[in-house]
Design a protein that fits this description.
This protein is an alpha/beta fold. It has ten helices and six strands, in the order E-H-H-E-H-H-E-H-E-H-H-H-E-E-H-H. Helix content is about 45%, strand content about 15%. The longest helix has 22 residues, at about 35-55. It starts with 13 loop residues before the first strand and ends with a helix.
Amino acid sequence: MKEDLSELKTIPAHVGIIMDGNGRWAKKRGQMRSSGHLEGLKAAKRIAAFASDIGVKYLSYYVFSTENWRRAQNEVDFIMGLVMKYLREEFEFYKKNNIRVRHAGDTSGLKPDIAQEIRDISKETKDFNGMQIILALNYGGRDEIVRAVRRFLVSESHASPEKKALTEDILRRYLDNPDIPDPDLIIRTAGEQRTSNFLLWESAYSELYFSRTLWPDFSEADFRSALEAYANRERRFGAIAPAHIEQSEAS
């Protein structure tokens, strides 16, 4: 049954989520951090199903950053184990909801079996034409831009006019997923108010929404609140709001 969101002015096509607070969720309950990551995985599935149902076209999850390797080895191993286990086990979920799975980040920094699993699930879901989930795994915004520049330098010949006149449009072609539109809305949970190297290029004009809810507790109602906040904002992309233009002309 579709959620009634008729009162909202618009549904963002692309939502990015920084899933923060798994460790704090576990600590509050006297549990190991691993239990927080497991509950966070359940939250990601719950929100993905809801987002797909209401018409979000792209959902980017910040799963594991290039900086997260600094965490304790047992925590890193547990997170990678979750990724390896559930990418495969959730195939029926993707199929049922017609969800295509994609990846952002540097697969060369992952263990070969995990990198292969990402390639496999991306290939197996590529013809699903519903919502697309982008898993940002071993991902950093600065790293993506550097890798894009490297790909550009390798791909373009020294004599190419493009090499001499690099533009934003040209460089964008070399990002991890150049065909995906920039996120309209980025949500961060657990009360932190920063983007932490997430989609730096793509989020230049994204609306930001910060929730105090720890990610494992993030519900459909919390997601709806973020959508309501987004729907009531005026996106200008550097331009002057029409009302301000009218006031300026009148004066």
